Amino acid sequence: MVDGTTDRPPARRPGGRNARVRAQILAATAELVARDGIGGFRYEEVAEYAGVHKTSVYRNWPDREELVVEALLRYAEGLASVADTGDIHRDLSDFLLALAGGLETPFGRTLEQAIQPARQHTTVQALTRILDQRVAAMRGRVDTAVERGELPPVDSSFLGEMISGPVHLIVNRGMRPFTRTDAERIVGVVLAGIRATAPPT
């Protein structure tokens, strides 16, 4: 008791230390996967890279593959969404910029390379699901645009392939950064073509 107050331990915040430790481990895993690829990722390096004890890694993720998948999902959380401002051209342009930004990071390049070979691997299947979720979000925005009359009826999967294909091509070439001008030109050309070829109503 000091000056009428009682010494008490500080209140624990929800999640607290364990949440911070888990976040450190996931971030370290993502960086190691980006550096070494999924095939070269070493489970044993995570604790040292994250600055935590080995038991923290093994207790939270006894399976190496579960750790990799969760790290990939955490990294991709912000990529599977498309804004709805009411302007389909702007929203799709922003989507392409976000897609390019993700692909241009070391981790994004690892994701892109990882889905090319054998898709039977569980981790690769998880990566494929991440990309599928991102594309599905974009398709949902296109379907909303059709319902509102922003676009004529269109196969949203086809539109998604048309606008995202050039992004992968430009980024994978690595010859120059992908810019907003690129995004707006791609979206403009594709939407103009869709509108021009739509059957009369």
TrEMBL record:
<protein>
    <submittedName>
        <fullName>TetR family transcriptional regulator</fullName>
    </submittedName>
</protein>
<feature type="DNA-binding region" description="H-T-H motif">
    <location>
        <begin position="42"/>
        <end position="61"/>
    </location>
</feature>
<dbReference type="InterPro" id="IPR001647">
    <property type="entry name" value="HTH_TetR"/>
</dbReference>
<dbReference type="InterPro" id="IPR050109">
    <property type="entry name" value="HTH-type_TetR-like_transc_reg"/>
</dbReference>
<dbReference type="InterPro" id="IPR036271">
    <property type="entry name" value="Tet_transcr_reg_TetR-rel_C_sf"/>
</dbReference>
<dbReference type="Pfam" id="PF16859">
    <property type="entry name" value="TetR_C_11"/>
</dbReference>
<keyword id="KW-0804">Transcription</keyword>
<dbReference type="GO" id="GO:0003700">
    <property type="term" value="F:DNA-binding transcription factor activity"/>
</dbReference>
<keyword id="KW-0805">Transcription regulation</keyword>
<dbReference type="InterPro" id="IPR011075">
    <property type="entry name" value="TetR_C"/>
</dbReference>
<dbReference type="Pfam" id="PF00440">
    <property type="entry name" value="TetR_N"/>
</dbReference>
<dbReference type="GO" id="GO:0000976">
    <property type="term" value="F:transcription cis-regulatory region binding"/>
</dbReference>
<feature type="domain" description="HTH tetR-type">
    <location>
        <begin position="19"/>
        <end position="79"/>
    </location>
</feature>
<dbReference type="InterPro" id="IPR009057">
    <property type="entry name" value="Homeodomain-like_sf"/>
</dbReference>
<keyword id="KW-0238">DNA-binding</keyword>
